[in-house]
C-alpha cells in the first residue's frame, strides 16, 4: 500500500483512503506524511476541517484520487479551508509509539482507537497520554459525561489503529470535561 500512497504524500491533493473497518471505513483529506507503516492525514468531513489522523498502512484497502478530488481541492482552496496543511509540529511516524509520544509533546490530547476488522465495535479513548513503553500505553481518558476515569486504560500499541488530534470533537469536548486528569493531580 505504501507504493499507492507515496505519490500523494505532501502533494496537497485530496485523496480518499478506504480502510478495512466499518467504524471508520474511509479517510478523506490530504496525506501530509508517510513512513513504512504509518500515514498522517489532515482529514475533512465535507467542507469542515476535521483535524489530523495517524493511521496504519496495513489497514488500507484502496486509495482514490480522481477528478472528484481535484474538484474538492478547488472548492476547499477557494473557501480558504486548507491552512491545516501547514502543520508546524513534526509527528514522528517511525512507529505508533513515536507518533503518540510526539502528538503528546506538541498537542497534549488525542483520541486513540482500537478497531476490529469486520465489526462496527471499537475501543475509543479520548484524553491524554500517561506513559508508554515498547508494548503499551497508559492513557488517561474520560467518559461520555466528561468525567475522568479513575484508572488509566492500558492499551497495547499493536491494537491501536487510529490516533486523532486537533479535531473539533476533541477541542469542543475538552471545554466541558470535569477537572484535571488524574496524572495532572498526582
Structure described in brief:
This protein is an alpha+beta fold. The protein has 5 helices and 10 strands; from the N terminus they run H-E-E-E-E-E-H-H-E-E-E-E-E-H-H.
Verbal overview:
- The N and C termini lie far apart (43 Å).
- This protein has five helices and ten strands.
- The protein has 186 residues and is α+β, with helices and mostly antiparallel strands.
- The protein has one domain.
Major sheet: 10 strands, antiparallel
Rg from alpha-carbon coordinates = 16 Å
H/E element sequence: HEEEEEHHEEEEEHH
Uncertain residue segments: none
Mean pLDDT: 91
> Structurally, how many domains make up the residues?
1
Oligomer: single chain
Helix percentage? 10-25%
Could you tell me the number of beta strands? 10
Count the helices. How many?
Answer: 5
Cα end-to-end separation: 43 Å
Helix/strand structural class: alpha+beta
Apparent shape: globular
List the helices and strands and how they pair.
Blueprint: H1 2-5, E1 15-19, E2 26-34, E3 38-45, E4 48-56, E5 60-64, H2 67-78, H3 96-107, E6 110-115, E7 122-132, E8 136-141, E9 153-156, E10 162-165, H4 168-174, H5 182-185
Antiparallel strand pairs: 1-2, 1-5, 2-3, 3-4, 4-10, 6-7, 6-10, 7-8, 8-9
Amino acid at each position: 500500500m505504501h507504493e499507492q500512497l507515496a505519490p500523494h504524500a505532501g502533494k496537497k491533493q485530496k485523496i480518499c483512503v478506504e480502510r478495512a473497518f466499518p467504524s471508520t471505513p474511509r479517510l478523506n483529506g490530504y496525506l501530509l506524511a508517510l513512513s513504512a507503516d504509518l500515514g498522517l492525514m489532515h482529514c475533512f468531513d465535507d467542507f469542515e476541517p476535521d483535524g489530523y489522523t495517524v493511521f496504519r498502512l496495513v489497514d488500507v484497502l484502496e486509495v482514490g484520487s480522481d477528478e472528484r478530488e481535484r474538484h474538492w481541492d478547488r472548492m476547499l482552496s477557494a473557501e480558504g479551508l486548507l491552512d491545516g496543511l501547514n502543520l508546524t509540529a513534526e509527528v514522528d511516524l517511525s512507529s505508533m509509539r513515536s507518533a503518540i509520544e510526539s502528538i503528546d509533546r506538541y498537542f497534549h490530547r488525542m483520541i486513540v482507537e482500537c478497531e476490529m476488522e469486520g465489526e462496527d465495535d471499537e475501543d475509543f479513548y479520548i484524553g491524554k497520554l500517561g506513559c508508554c513503553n515498547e508494548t503499551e500505553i497508559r492513557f488517561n481518558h474520560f467518559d461520555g459525561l466528561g468525567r475522568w476515569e479513575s484508572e488509566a486504560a492500558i492499551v497495547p500499541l499493536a491494537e491501536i489503529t487510529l490516533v486523532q488530534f486537533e479535531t473539533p470533537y476533541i477541542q469542543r469536548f475538552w471545554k466541558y470535561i470535569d477537572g484535571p486528569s488524574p496524572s495532572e493531580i498526582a
